[in-house]
Amino acid sequence: MYRRSAAAAVLLAAALTLTACSSGGDDSDAQAKAKPPASSAAPDPADTPDTAASPAADAKPTGPVLPDAKLTPKTGSFTAEEKKYLSGRVPEKMDPAAVLQTGQEACQRVARTAKRDKDAATGAVITGEIPGAKDAITHLCPDQKPILAAAEKGFPEGSRKSPAAGSYRALTQATNCTWEVKGKDGAALASGPETPPKAGDKITATIPSGAAEFNSSGCYAWIPA
Question: CB within 10 Å: which end of the chain, N or C, has fewer?
Answer without folding.
Answer: N
